[in-house]
Amino acid sequence: MGLSHKNLNSTVLIGITGGIAAYKICELIRMFKKNNYNVKVVVTANALNFVTELTLATLSDNKVYSDNFDIKEYKPEHISLCDEADIMVIAPASANTISKLANGICDNLLTSVACAFNKPIVIAPAMNTNMWNNNFVQENLSKLKAFGYYITEPESGFLACGTTGEGRLCSLDTIYNKTLEILEDNKLLKGKKLIITAGGTIEKIDPVRYISNFSSGKMGLALADNAYKMGAEVELISTFEVDRPYVVKQVSSAENMFAEVKNSFNSSDCTIMASAVADYKVAEYSSQKLKKGSEDKIVLELVKNPDILKEISKIKRDNQIVVGFCAESQNLLENANIKIDNKGCDYLIANDISRNDIGFSSEDNEVYIIDKTHNIKHLEKSSKDNIAKQILEYIFE
């Protein structure tokens, strides 16, 4: 079975949609109950064509929630279920339900619960191969991932429609272990507020030109996503537009970013400066477009921007953590050790931007975590999402 985590205080809300794989969820309920989880079940009307309400109620030892309206027990069930459960698992998740969730459609109890649910949701899709490969279904899955839903990919195999291909519900062990992993992760940062910055700042020269850098912001976004999944209250201060379920504040220049960081810093437990903040800006911004003259050269006078990392490290309280990032093209660790002493932060994440396979715009990264006493933790090359998770685990565990 894999992981075993006995917790009488955790409630798992299982949502079952209409699909032949619905019968398998009886065993999933049994797995959670065996390990002392409280299980509640909400079903769509079509799910009851594949498994009976009596079976689900017997296995879960709880009332089964459906669209049946019982005036004697009326209460806003989609709200009460959200309050009671620690995590929601929708399995099997049909193409229909996936598409409804991605577009905010709440036309039954299950989708209404999911829409109001502000804790982790695991989606276990199961459908015909052609439906799984449909561009709209894949686009909707991508939307759900972006909003922090966890997707357990279906497997290839023999399907109920008589064909063989992708779309078969993944193993129950996969769903069970993923749920437990999320519950564990979600406790790590529960009750903590994190400020995370992302992207390269823009320093305007005139209304059409600016100075910036090649930072994509992917690392900062991965840190924010993972912190949110681990239960933190997250505020992302980003130089690019992004749609996320946590607070996002969009800024442009280093001064804009500094102002937003200062506004929220006192209430934070940890601030991670993952953005690439421009060291300099033009001394005088031109409100009119600078015209090209006959000269072969143009000289711009630059002045220093505020050093956000250094400034917040000066004012941080003992119970606050400040993390900086260091992008170097040579002498990585030597320069990083000098920088952490100069900045005064608690941790510095050093990465080598001279490599083409990691860093700016790449999906992967490889970093060194350095603390105040110059202890070094090396994180081998991996996806930025995985690196972000490891950074947060290292700092907070």
Fill in the keyword field for this structure.
alpha/beta; eight-stranded mixed sheet; Rossmann fold; 20 strands; six-stranded parallel sheet; 2 domains; 25% strand; 397 residues; 13 helices; disordered N terminus
Give average pLDDT, whole number.
91
Strand order of the largest sheet: 13-12-9-14-17-18-19-20
Number of strands: 20
Rough shape?
elongated
At the fourth level of CATH, the homologous superfamily of the largest domain is CoaB-like
Radius of gyration: 25 Å
The N- to C-terminal Cα distance equals 26 Å
Strand content: 25-35%
Q: The CATH topology of the largest domain, please?
A: Rossmann fold
Helix residue percentage: 25-40%
The number of distinct structural domains comes to 2
- In DSSP terms (H or I, runs of 4 or more residues), the helix count works out at 13
Helix-and-strand structural type: alpha/beta
CATH architecture group name of the largest domain = 3-Layer(aba) Sandwich
CATH C-level of the largest domain = Alpha Beta
Low-confidence stretches: 1-6
Largest sheet: 8 strands, mixed
